[in-house]
Every structure is written in structure tokens, then in C-alpha cells.
Amino acid sequence: MSKDDALVIAGQTFQSRLLVGTGKYKDLDETREAIEASGAEIVTVAVRRTNIGQNADEPNLLDVISPDKYTILPNTAGCYTAADAVRTCRLARELLDGHDLVKLEVLGDQKTLYPNIVETLQAAETLVKDGFKVMVYTNDDPIVAKQLEEMGCVAVMPLGSLIGSGLGILNPHNIQIIMEAANVPIIVDAGVGTASDAAVAMEMGCEGVLMNTAIAAARNPVLMASAMRKAIEAGREAHLAGRMPRKKYASASSPLEGVIG
């Protein structure tokens, strides 16, 4: 990817547009290898499920995913109220020496893991006022997405489909509307199943894609991470190149003028 085409979030510049999670791997070695293969620079960590220093006698994820190499993005996965999400972000800030870039998600139920928008809006408002730089997981509602941006969130992250479903982007039209109105990065978060899903998101014009299960639940996570890296790059280049217009009928690959005979 060209260095002139960087992803900028809250003033920070990143060359990779692939953001990855750290859950569901068989062990920390596989986690490290897959993340290295992905080329990701932003790595998200579920503070309520992963040890990043709060449990001194347990393996620390930061021993294999170093903050010196990656931008650690604490997230509030597993939170179902605004209060819990805010508390979790404040804990992460303490554990990470004042780190203020966080991924907010407030879930509605355990079956769908669909976002609870009322609680998400409340948490976002509190966190922004508290000085956090909030990247926020939401549904694909363009009105809500704009509200979150206007509230001060530094990136809006609409779902492609349900978390961990692997169904791909089910409502590209809404995401397109969200992007057209946005002045902050729009990053597809949740639902990607394979490399073609990631490429589609990038071809649409999304600024990036965040994924976890699509890599961690693959038969070969390290190889899938490499595939996702290439898909993100190819999709971004295709978006920048501009696809040919769709046509109803055939069009010869070569000009018809000057054809012999």
C-alpha cells in the first residue's frame, strides 16, 4: 500500500487498513503468528476477557503483542450497559499508562451480540467528555452513525453482519450512505468471513476492516491472516483505481475500428 494512502485515526497514521482482534486463538503463539501475518498495526483487546496486566499471575497478552510494535486498542466486549463500558475503558487507561484510544461496544443480548444503541450513545458521550478517543461499534443505521460522529467519536464502525457470523456485508447500501455523510473513518466491524468479504468492504470505500473470528476460526489462521492482508490491499487499490461501469450488454475487449476483413 502506498505510503501516500494512509489511514488516519485521531491524528495517528497507519499504513495497514486491517485491524485485528486477539480472541479465539488456540494459544498465544498462534495469536502472535497470525497477527504478524496480517500486517495489522492496530490490535484490539477485550479488557474483560484478556489479561493485559490486571492479573499478575496469568500470561500477559502484551508479552507477545507488544505496545512498542502495535497500537493496542482496548475494547469493551462483554459489556451490556453504558456504565460497564465506561468502567472498562477507565480500567484500560490505567493499565496502559494513560492510553486513550478505545473501541466502544455495548451489546444488546448474548444471542445476537447486536449493539444496544441507547447504551452505546450514553457511553460514547461520557467517554468523549472524559477525554477518550472513541472508535465505536454500531449498527448500520446512518442516522445513529452521524450522531456518534457529531458526538465526537473518532471512527464509526458499523457491522457488516452479526459478530462472528461470517455472513459478510449484508446491507452495503446503508454502509454506503453512512460513508457519504461521514467526516471520520468508517470501518466495517463484524461479520467478515473470508477474504472476498474484506475486499468488498474496501472496494466500497470503507477506510478499513476490523476482524477476529474470520482469522482465528479458520482452519489455518496464519494463512487466513495473510489472505486478509492481501484482500484489504487489493480492495483498497481497486477502490482508488475506480471500477469500470456496469453495462447491460457485452463490450469488446479490443476496439472494433480497423478490424481486418
UniProtKB/TrEMBL annotation:
<keyword id="KW-0704">Schiff base</keyword>
<dbReference type="InterPro" id="IPR013785">
    <property type="entry name" value="Aldolase_TIM"/>
</dbReference>
<keyword id="KW-0784">Thiamine biosynthesis</keyword>
<feature type="binding site">
    <location>
        <begin position="212"/>
        <end position="213"/>
    </location>
    <ligand>
        <name>1-deoxy-D-xylulose 5-phosphate</name>
    </ligand>
</feature>
<comment type="function">
    <text>Catalyzes the rearrangement of 1-deoxy-D-xylulose 5-phosphate (DXP) to produce the thiazole phosphate moiety of thiamine. Sulfur is provided by the thiocarboxylate moiety of the carrier protein ThiS. In vitro, sulfur can be provided by H(2)S.</text>
</comment>
<dbReference type="Pfam" id="PF05690">
    <property type="entry name" value="ThiG"/>
</dbReference>
<feature type="binding site">
    <location>
        <begin position="190"/>
        <end position="191"/>
    </location>
    <ligand>
        <name>1-deoxy-D-xylulose 5-phosphate</name>
    </ligand>
</feature>
<keyword id="KW-0808">Transferase</keyword>
<dbReference type="GO" id="GO:1990107">
    <property type="term" value="F:thiazole synthase activity"/>
</dbReference>
<dbReference type="InterPro" id="IPR033983">
    <property type="entry name" value="Thiazole_synthase_ThiG"/>
</dbReference>
<feature type="active site" description="Schiff-base intermediate with DXP">
    <location>
        <position position="103"/>
    </location>
</feature>
<feature type="domain" description="Thiazole synthase ThiG">
    <location>
        <begin position="9"/>
        <end position="255"/>
    </location>
</feature>
<comment type="subunit">
    <text>Homotetramer. Forms heterodimers with either ThiH or ThiS.</text>
</comment>
<dbReference type="InterPro" id="IPR008867">
    <property type="entry name" value="ThiG"/>
</dbReference>
<dbReference type="GO" id="GO:0009229">
    <property type="term" value="P:thiamine diphosphate biosynthetic process"/>
</dbReference>
<dbReference type="GO" id="GO:0005737">
    <property type="term" value="C:cytoplasm"/>
</dbReference>
<keyword id="KW-0963">Cytoplasm</keyword>
<comment type="similarity">
    <text>Belongs to the ThiG family.</text>
</comment>
<protein>
    <recommendedName>
        <fullName>Thiazole synthase</fullName>
        <ecNumber>2.8.1.10</ecNumber>
    </recommendedName>
</protein>
<feature type="binding site">
    <location>
        <position position="164"/>
    </location>
    <ligand>
        <name>1-deoxy-D-xylulose 5-phosphate</name>
    </ligand>
</feature>
<comment type="pathway">
    <text>Cofactor biosynthesis; thiamine diphosphate biosynthesis.</text>
</comment>
